[in-house]
Amino acid sequence: MTVSVPRRAVLYTGGLVAAAVSGWGLLVDPPWHGATGARTRSRFPTPGPARSGEEGERGPLYHVDAGPKTIAITFDDGPDPRYTPHILDELRRHRVTATFCVIGEHAAKHPELVARAAEEGHTLANHTWSHPNLRHMRPAQIRDQIEQAADAIESASGGDRPGLFRAPFGTFTPEVLAACSEYDLRPLAWSVDPRDWSRPGSARIAATVLNRTRTGAIIINHDGGGDRSQTLAAVRSYLPKLLAAGYRFTTPVSAAEDSDGE
Question: Is 258 annotated in the active site?
Answer without folding.
Answer: no
